[in-house]
Structures are given as structure tokens and as C-alpha cells.
Amino acid sequence: MFCGPFVNDYQRLLIEQLSGAPSVRRVVDFVAGSGDAGAKARRMSLKGLRASALGGLVAVLADAATAKKSASPGFQPSMILVVTANDEHSSEIYEDLNFFGLERTFHYPKYQVLPYDAEAPLLDEQVKHLELLHELATGHAGEAATQDGPAATGPVVCAASIEALFTRVAPLDVMRAMTLTVEWGTPLVIDDFAQSATQLGYERVPTVEARGEFSVRGGIIDVYPPDAENPIRIDLFGDEIESMRYFDTHTQRSVRGKGDVERVVLLPAAERLLIERAVTEAPDKPLPTLLDLLPAETLVLLDNTENFLMLDERFRQLTARQYTERLAQHNAGSVRVNPLSGDSDDAPPPAAPLDPAMLYATLADVEQAVGRFTQLHHSLLVETVVKGVPSVAFTTQSFEMVKPSLEHYITQLRNGAANGYVMSVVCDNDGQVQRMDEMLREHEIAVVRSVAEAEKSARGTVARDVILATGRLHSGFSFPEANLYIVTDREIFGRYKRRHVYRKVYKGTPIADAREIRKGDLVVHIHHGVGRYEGMRTQNLDGRVADLMEIVYADDDRLLVPTDKIAYVHKFSGADGVAPTLDRLGGKKWEARRRKSQEDIEKMAQELLRLYASRSVGVGYSSHEDTLWQREFESSFLFTETPDQLRAIDEVKNDMMADKPMDRLVCGDVGYGKTEVAIRAGFKTIQEGKQVALLAPTTILAQQHYNTFRERFADYPIRVEMVSRFQTAKQIREISADLKAGKIGLVVGTHALLSKSIEFKDLGLVVVDEEQRFGVRQKERLKELRASVDFLTLTATPIPRTLYMALSGLRDMSIINTPPADRHPIKTRIMHWEREQIEEAVLRELNRGGQVYFVHNRVHNIHDIARRLQEIVPSARIVVGHGQMPDADLEQVMLDFIDRKHDILVSTTIIESGLDIPNVNTIIINRADTFGLAQLYQIRGRVGRENRRAYAYLIVPQGEAITEHAVARLSAIEEFTELGMGFNIAMRDMEIRGVGNLLGKEQHGTMNNIGFELYCRLLEDAVQVLRGQARDTEEQPDVEIQWKVSVHIPGWYVPVESQRLMLYKRVAESTTPEELDEVAAEFRDRYGEVERTSTATKAGEAPSRREDLPAEVENLLRVARMRMLGRKLGLRRLTMTPKGFIVHRDDAVARLGRSASNFAREKGLRIYTDKTNALEFEFTDAEKRDVPADTLRILGGLQVSAEEAAA
């Protein structure tokens, strides 16, 4: 709901308090009376609205406009536009507007690209533009639709930066023409939809995984609108929409718990398409500015306009420079050359750029457009005096200069309550509210959680109680005129840099199954060795259609693998740059390699199991269950934990509550949430009265951990200290003494913490970040600590889930593979050293207030590279850092860079791991062809940590030969940039490195012999045997199913071969009926249903109705169930006959005959035996039965009877 009534009583109270201030009333009355006034009389000057008070004033104006719609006449703005000097401030105002109860709000950011940039703006930014344009185009300004009743009137409110208004937009009629609405109950022709979606910029793909994509499979359309939280699946019967529902990109399954969608609005996939159409329709007419599209009843509030002139000058210079360069490129007929192949791109030479006046506006254009609206000009410090223009000065105060202190704010809250103020503390979440409640009550401050509670309290007045609220207010303020004092818990404790929270969270591309096999991939067959997959082949075998995997071996021998034997085939992943030779069919070398590998794996598994058992003997401190403080502390986490993160936290806590010392490894990429796991473990340890030591390999990493832990523990009486070379000897002695006395709860440091001179009173937990980077002597000391205290190791080495599963029970290990929800893909480009491209890349980053890494891995000429960069970008502040510098100098360089004293860091690969600097979102890697795939991925991962687009530029030499392997590496890193793709692009390198770190170099070699997938499978088998469990069924004799029906997935039903292959693999690897049911449900959900009684009239045609799975797919699932039951019954073969089935087993009559007799009395069923020990079941009324279904029922009954007899 918009405003009036507000979302809750608390927001209504704030608006009422603000509205009661005389200065605010003057502004409200001025706006109401400005409708018929002259130009000057439609402008007012404001001064002194500090912190979030500006957002509060806008909320009051919106509320007043809403009230006037149904009350007295006067100017009633249908839209309010707040224009700020920068995007950060406009984003803060946008959040404040939502805090004060306005929900129909928009944020209109500037694009984080340069004028005339070939790079597309970040999709999230485009979505915000498109949402506002759609709102204006549909004429909803002044109306607020609600779910519960008729629309409430009220203005649309938008916050934008002045630079965002400099970029012109498409007219609203173009927006209307390029919007597609799909509604339940309205006919929809698939071909028409596909054509319209393509015109709107949507890409047709086999599987929808990202915004702006759509796919068509039979009667099912999947589409992912750019502004949607989840993609939508449209289920059609002919041209009639039967249902529309959300689905999940990770599972490709419909989202449970979300109801059907009744209406879908498809906005264009990119704003560029609107611009192109508008220019085509009116090539000589400048595009309008956003201000030109606003309704006449718009109120514009301009904030800190004294900065606008400087921003306008900078933008015009940048635009002119970019225009000149683009024009020169066009005149020269420049064609982009692929740096890897040397071939020219297929794209035509760049078109002549449009004149800047067509695409971009100036401050003069903006001021002219604003002139037709009622205006409020606000300045914090300077009151603008214009003759005939009224002005208002506000008495608000911010807490920006107040040193964080609980005691100070306690005093302020007491005094304010005594003076009749409405006092409020705003917390980010419920956990912080609970903690604040406890602390204020300890200081005898009256606290309530709601306005209603305050009104019912014994004091009988809201002004006497401090109201605790949950919300996202960017900063608090006091306003004596309004008797209002509102402060955030962040200001009280001085913690957390403000993080922006947006209304929608979009998912990245899901981590694809690393086992996915594509044509041309190397595969390994468990019986025949390494071959090359050549694709699926459909053949007619004895009158039935079947799919076969075609694998090529040495001497061009070919193996056709039936899909029911697909579990024998694994994708081959070996070391980067190592291409194994193909094995010979029938040769002995593969069997010898496999046998040797199996022996090595079993030996290693035995050693791991022995080590695990010896650790289990040790006795350690057992922690208690979580306390109230622990729960409050965890609920104060500002982000939503990922499932992997929650699992890791639970595993760590369970270890800590066990009676043996914890020794757990937590693996996950930087920024995936490992530190939060350690923070919670540390807090739990300190709750038990014990101390925590956190070791990091470098002082810079230790400093980052120190800052993080200190901020997270700020609300609690926990002392956090750090030991590093930045402390004096005296300071370290004092810290050491306090550690020994138990006055310090947690200490962070480098290997200096391992010194014998550092003593703890009661050490309970050691956290080690990247243990492999410590020296031999330090590792020996760590080994001593492991025996007596809880030990938690963090590492960014990626551990694949398959290896994790194989090692379960041998190593206490948690993996965090899920990326945070607000990450964006890293835009990756390969290029030669080209001055213009480097300059553009750097300027793009600096223009949005960011910083740049430039990686050059040659110390001898690194300063020459820095000088060349300085010539290219003279205005940039450049610093050099490398590993041969004195430690203290290098650390100072890094700390200065973190503090934003430099724009560009030119360094060697010292940035490869650990450093987390969110403001760095562009990285340029020189001579990228000399790096390994894993190293490139790791270095590139230093950027892309915030909710903004990150760029990686890989420079390769011009005129020099690049090795074939380097080309393959660079192509892979350029292609796979989506979130979570790291495990896929680096299978041949990173995963093997992970195994080497965990299991040793010998196992690294073993894996190269047989491939990663098979290695994990054999390791899992070995672990099961050692733990007394049955070996996997893969090695057991399989059950032969003889049934003369088509058992396959038709190409018309699942058109994409790789998807069919993965579904075959899912079916073949299912071990329980429930897993097969899940596969069947996925078939129905993703690919739809067909009429069971009809078949395609022509090859490749789908049946016309959808009532069930295709018969061939149903047969596939039934055969899988028969095989599953046959394995449990020990059958050799199961033969389906026209009237029943025959089971073959060496002792079938003796072992199964008695169980079979239980069915002898079933009407219409006869049972025969023969000399080959086969049992034949015949249905005399077969024509009336579903014979396969009854076969499965009887096989299930035989299994139950056999199990009961065995028991």
C-alpha cells in the first residue's frame, strides 16, 4: 500500500510528528498553493534538512497530497521527483522513503558506463529505468493500486541523481509499443509470442537461466522478465493458457508455495531497444529527457544544487571525448579483431555516433525542463536567497560528528523523554531490537515495541517511552521543532558501513552440473577407459526405438552405450593442459590403470580413516546449547544466510558440542560467507568463558578480520585485539598480559600469535585462515594446538561437492558453494594492449567512484608499466606493490589503497587470494596468456564483490604466438562469467588442486590417470567398504530387461541433446523409487504432458493433447523401476511377454517360489516354473490390465516377502 493509511502506526506517528513542525507546515502550505502561481511563486528555498530528515519531509508532502485528493482543493502533485548530486545519496533517500511508509517509490540511478560506451549498463540499473518508464507510460501516476480494494490516490515518488537525468530516454509511446502483457484466460499463440519476445530483446535458449531469456518446449513457454524475482512457466493447451507459475532456475522446477500467476508484463530486455526504435522513428529529433515525460502536476525537490554545475561540466567533457573517439573509429573503419584467433569479428564497423545533443542533455536542458514544475531547492549549508522566492530553514541535527557511545545516547534518550519528545531507536532486524531492548532496560529506560504498546503503558503517553523499530533508515536525526529524536543502532555502536538493500534480489546463473557431457568431451567408461563422446544416436533395435551414446576410442573404434548403462560413463576431468590419449577397446592398459588407481585410493582411504579414528579418541571441552545471546547475535546478521552457510554453521556447532576437539575445514570462495561461520563459532566459544585466536597469513588479512570481528561484536562486552607489526613492543606486551589474565575474548594476528611468549588464560578455539600458506614451523605448532582445543580452518580452495561426498566420514569438512544473492557476473574481455581501451576501462571505473587493479607479474619492469599507465590516465593516482618490497612498505601500500588514497594498484599476483576490497571492481591482467586457468579465475575473483558490475580485461600480446592451451584457457575464462561458474570452468585445474591440498600429491596423480568423476566414485566405494557398508551397485551384475517397446526420451519432447543425456543419467543413477518419482515430476513440470493414446503423426511431431508423459518416457521410468526391484531380488534377467513376465534367477524357484505362491490365488494370474529355474507370471485377462504396472506391483510384493522371510 502507498500512504494514507501508512503501512503501520509507527510510520503514521513519525509523519504526524514531522507534520506538526511549523517549518514543515510552511512547505506543505506552499506546495498546496503553488498550482496557479507564477514561475517565481512556484519555487521555495530550503536549508538544513540533515540525514534522513529530507526523506521525512518528502513523505509528509506525499501524505499531504494523498489527503488533499479527497479533501480541499489546491495543487495536488501526482508525482514527486527528488534530484540529488550523486547516486549514493539518491539511493539513501529511496531507502528512507520506504522506511517512512511509501511503497510506490522508484530509484532512477545513473548508468555505471561511459557515454557512447559499447558496454551495456548493468541490467539491475536498466530495470529501475524501465520500471519507472512503464509506470509513466501506463498512466498510473496519482493512483496506488492495492490488493484489497480500489486504488488509493497518492503521488508516485522517485529519487534520481542529476547525472541520471543527463541521459535522454525514449518517448512513452515507444515504451507502450514495446511492452507485452500475457494474461490468464487470454489466447496466446506460441509463434506470435516467440516473435514478440524476440523483438523485445529476449534471447531464445534451450534452458532459461538468466533474465531476458525465453524457451519453448512443446506447449510450455519459460520466460524470465528482467524485473521478475523468478522466471515464469506458461502452460498452454493449444492457444489457451492453462496455468502460469514461477519456477526456480537452479532446479528448473516450479516453485512450491507460490500461487499461480494471473498476469505477466514483459518489459523490454534492454533500454537500448527503446532508444533504437525511437531514433529510427524520428532520426532528426532529440530524445526527450525524463523530465519531459513527467505529468504537469509534478513536484521537484533539488538537493545540493551547488554541485550540479561541476557535475555538468565533467559530464559534457566526458561526452565530448567519447563522441570524438567513436567518430574517429567510424571514420577509420575500425574493425575489432579477435585477440586469440587474429580474425576480424563478424560485427560490422561501428556506425557513426549520433550527435551528443540527440542522446544527452546538459544542465541547461534540465533546468529548462524543471521550470514548468513546482520546485523546492534544498541546501544543507547555503540558503539560496532569490528575490520573491520564499525560504524555510530547518533545525534538524544529524549524529555524523558524534562519537559512538552507548552512554551518550542513553543520556540523550533520557533527556528527550523527559522533555516530551517522541524517541525512537531503529534497528536493522529483530535480533538487534531484542539486544537493544535488553540494554536500554538495564539502564532503566522505558522501552516499547509499538505505538499501541506505548499508548497502553502506565505512563499513558507515547512521548515518555522509547520506541524500538525495525527498518532501513540510512541515518538518524533530531528535530526539536517536531519533538522528534530518531537514531539508528549503527550510530550508537559505530558499526557497519551502510549497505544498500534493494526491493528485489535476482539470482545469478545456477551452477551447472559439472558432470554435464557435451559432444566432443572426453569421457571415461568404467570398463573401457577414456574415449571421446560423439553424441547421441537413435536406432531401431528389433522394432523398438532406442538412444545410444556413441564413444570413439583409439583407432577410431566406436562403442555404442545403451542409455540404461549410462551410469558406467563419467565425464573425464584431468589436469589443465594434460590431454590423455584415448584407450583401445579391449586393451589391457586401462584395466591395469584402473586396478592400480583403486589400490592407491583404498590405501589412502585406510590412512584417512586411521587418522580420523585417532582424533576421535581425544577429549575436549564440550560446549553447551545456544544461549539467548547467541540467538540474538546470529539474528543480527544483516544478510540472509545461504543454505550451504547454514549447514556449515550447524556442523561447526555440533562439533563444538561433542566431547572431542573439533577439527573442521570450511571451504568456500572469498565472499561466500566463511568468515560469518567463524564469527559465530568464536562468539559461542567466548560465551563459554573461553578465548579465541584467529590466525591469518598476512597482516593485511589480519587487519580485515580484526575490523570484521570488532564490528560484529560491537553490541556485546567482548574485547577484540590484534597482534601485528603495526603495534609497538609495549602494546604487544600489554595485549599479551591481558590475554594471560583473561581480559581479551578474541585476538587476531599473524604467525606471531604462535609464539611461546603469547599465553592465554583459557584458549578454547583456534581459527586459521588459509593454513597452507603458513610455514613448516608454524604448522608444527598448529598441530600441537589441534590436540587440545577446537580447531577451525578456513580455505578458499574450492572443494567439489562430489569429492566432499566421497570424503564424508573421513574428514570433517564443510563446503560453501552458494554465491551470495546480490552478486553480479564479471564482464570479461580479452584484448591487446590498446591505449584507448585501457583508458576507457579505467575511466569507466573511476567515473563511478571505484578503484582498479592492474596485474603485471614481472617485478623487473613493473614500474615501467605503471609509468605507461600514468601517461594513458594522467589524472589517476597510481601506486605499485609487489612481493619483493619490504613487508612494512607493502602493507602500507595495501592499507593506503584500501583507504582509497590511490585509484590504481599496479601489482604482481599478491592480490590473488584473501584481499577483500569491495570498491575495486575493475581488474586488468597483463600477459594473461601466461597464467593458468585456476589462477586467472582466482585473480579475476578479486572484483565483483558489491552490487555493481565488475569488469576483467585480459591483455594478450600482439604479433606473438599464443599456445593452444593458453587459447583454450582464455576462451573458457571469457565465456563463463556467470555466477557460480567457477567450478565448471576450472574442473581440470582447481578441483585437482583442491584434491592435492586435501589428500596429497600422490592422489593428484591417481586422479589424472582415471579422471575426477571416476576418482570420486571409486573413493566413495572404498570409504563405504571400510565403514562396513555395501559396495555401490555399479559393480554388481546388472539386471537385463527384455521388453520389446520403445524406451527412450523422444527428441520432440526434450529437444536439447545434453538435457536428454543428463535425464538419462538421472534415471540410471536413481537408487530409490522416490528418486524416480522426482525425475517423473521434473519431466511433467519442465516438458509437459501428452495424450498417452496418441503418437506423433510424423517423425518429430508432438502429440496434440497433454494428459500424461509420452509412452516412451513412461516405459523408460518403468524399466528403471523393474531394474531397481530386480537388483534387490537378485535377478539375472526380467523378460516381458505379451501376457505377463518371466523372472530369471539361478535359484528362482527355491528362493522366490514360496513368495510367488502368495499371488497364486489372484484372479486372472497363473504362475509357471520351468527347468531353467525361471518363474513365469501370466495374466489370463491381460487385455484388461496395465501389464507393466501389475508387473511392478508383483515384483514389489516379491521383494517384501523375500525381506520378511530373511528377517
Describe it.
The chain has 1207 residues and is an alpha/beta fold. It starts with 8 loop residues before the first helix and ends with a helix. The chain has 6 domains: 9-173 and 277-308 and 361-393, Rossmann fold (3-Layer(aba) Sandwich), CATH 3.40.50; 180-266, Penicillin-binding protein 1b fold (2-Layer Sandwich), CATH 3.30.2060.10; 398-493, Rossmann fold, CATH 3.40.50.11140; 623-796, P-loop containing nucleotide triphosphate hydrolases (Rossmann fold, 3-Layer(aba) Sandwich), CATH 3.40.50; 826-978, 3-Layer(aba) Sandwich (Rossmann fold); 1057-1206, Alpha-Beta Complex (Aspartate Aminotransferase, domain 1). The chain contains 38 helices and 45 strands. Helix 17 packs antiparallel against helix 32, helix 31 crosses helix 32 and helix 37 (1148-1157) packs across helix 38. The strands form 9 sheets. Strands 3-6-2-14-15-1-16 form a 7-stranded parallel β-sheet. Mean pLDDT is 83; it is low at 1-6, 142-152, 497-514, 979-994 and 1094-1099. The chain is globular, with a radius of gyration of 34 Å.
What does this entry show, briefly?
Helix content is 38%, strand content 18%. It is of the alpha/beta class.
